[in-house]
Here is the input.
Amino acid sequence: MPLSGLQWSGREGGQILTIRSQETCHLQRAILPIRSTDGEFRLRSGNFPAIRKHPSQSKTRELFADMKKITLTGLAAMATLFSTSALAHHPMGGKTPSNLMEGLLSGIGHPVLGLDHLAFVVAVGIAAVLIGARFALPLFFILATVAGTGIHLMAINLPAVELVISLSVAAVGLLLITGRAVSFAVFASLFAVAGLFHGHAYGEAIFGAETTPVLAYLSGFGMTQYAISIIAGTAIVTSLGKAQEFVNNVPARIAGGMVAGAGFLMVGEKAIAAAFG
Here is the structure.
C-alpha cells in the first residue's frame, strides 16, 4: 500500500513513528521502519491502529478543480444571457417614465434587467461583506450611480461608457477570484469611479423626464441596488461561505470568477462589434 497522504503518529520504543498513506484504512499488519535507540532504522512487522485522514495539498488542488468546473458551468449560462441584447434593459420598453409610479418601477427594474449592472452590484455586496463593511461600502457605488445619472441628465457625456462598465465588471470579479485581501479604500475608489459610468447608463432610461419620475427613478434604483448588494453578499459570503475570509471563501471566489467571466464576455462582444459593426 502506498504510504504518502494520510498520517498516523505513535511511539515505538520511545521513538515517534509517523506513517502516511493515500487512503483511509485500518492497518491490520504491516512492515514499517522503526528508528531504534542507536539511531539506525530497522524494519518491524506488527499491528497498528487506524490511520486518520491528514490534510494535504491534494485537497486544495481538488477544491480548485471543483471551482473551475462550477465557474465554467456558470459562465456557460451567463454567456447565453449576455449574448442577447441585455444592455437594452429599459423596464418601460424604451418609454420615458411620465409619472411617479412609472419612474419608481423603472428604477427598481433597471438594476435587475441590466445583467451588467446586476453582476457588478452582486460583486459589490460580496466585497462589502468580505471586508466587514456590509452596509457602508455599497453606498460608495450607489451614491456614485446617482451622481452619474445626474451627469447624464445635464447632457454631459462620459467617454466609452459601456466599455468602462464591462471592464469594471471584469475588474471587480478578478479582485474577488484571486482571494487576496483588498483594502476598503481600493474597493471604495473602484466602486465610486465605476458608479459614475453605471449611473450614466442608468440616466438614458430617464432622460427628458419630469422631476417627479426622475426622483422616483433615482429612489427606485438606489434602494434596489442597496438591497441586492446586502442580500447577495450575505448569502454568498456568510451563508454559503461560512463567513470565511478572502482566500478561504470558496463561494465568494466562484462568484467572482463568474462575474469576471461575464465582464470579459461583454468586453469581447464590444470589441467584435467595434471591429465588424
